[in-house]
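Worked example 2:
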Amino acid sequence: MADPGSEQVARSYFGALDAHEVDTAMALWAPEGHGHVRGEWEAHTPEELRRFNLELLEAVPDLRFEVRSTTSEGERCAVQWRLTGTFAGPGRLRGVAPTGDPIAIEGVDLLTVSGGLIRANDAFMDTTAIPRQIGMLPARDSTAERRMTDAFNLRTAVAQRVTAREPELVAEGVWVVQGQPGRCNVYLIEDEGGVTVYDAGARTMVRAVAGAAARFGGIRRVVLGHGHTDHRGTAPSLSAPVWCHPDEVRDAQGSGGFRYWPADLEGLPLGQRQIHRVLHRHFWDDGPVKIEGTLEEGEEVAGFRVVHLPGHAPGLIGLWRESDRLALVSDCFYTVDMWARDVDPHVPDRVYNFDTEQAAASIAKLAELEPAAAWPGHGRPVTGEVRAKLERAARQG
């Protein structure tokens, strides 16, 4: 006798569940079968699936399954169904005590059948339907739902104001997203239907950077100005290839700068030391980054030329655009103090430098390019008499 088709097995399976004949339903499963209710639950064996069905019947004793339609293709059959019943118990439903409420949900199961047995099931359903019907969530379009939505939107707005600003256009095709803590700057450079992200900022900025980049077509690549914790923070979550200078790979994929910083950030005042330890661990850093490629002095990326500016970090690189004399330079210099307050440009604090004398020389090297605007990794840019301001910073370093 020929094996039953996938639709016949599917209808037999749902018919058995509708009749509360769990053993009959489970006899239709292959020993290696597995099921998955997307976003909700997974059964790795038929025995786990049996327990799930028994618990469902304990929670909804008058359960009924109605098959609305089926669509078959080879070994697969999609079943559109409607489940109705009363959440009367005595069993619980996913840990929730019975409420006595009527429930009705719809979904689709995609069954894979071969040899007359079910090998796999992918189920899709509205997972908010039951919580709404039993009062765990407010009813759709109700006053309570509108209030909940308003409260959530307020929370989102507050979080966005605290962690990051809206992107600001700073030059042709170049946008900056500035975020907290530390007024970290992440640059979005329009690039062939998407953006190149330069400097990855703090982990608190992930949603702001990803959201801003999506408006321009998404992220093509991330270029790290350097691999310190507060400049690689968003990179692990942006789902884009990450590039840096060869001398920065070790720290981008490793300690994030801690290998050459003094132990326990010794050298910072006690209060700053305690605060910075918390910031590095919980706000700036999201851990090591996998580096896909490297960039060196003179190479081109997104219409900019790479400039090696070592000192603060061994592989710190800036981006230079000759056409408008724009420099994006990460932490080549600071325009903020250790509390993120505006100050004149200066060499970064020795505690955080790989080589402070080299850092001062790199500021002088940048000054020789005579930028019209130089944008750092934190805070505001240097504009106006840029060369003179940078040369002064290099001398004072």
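The chain has a mean pLDDT of 93. The radius of gyration is 29 Å.
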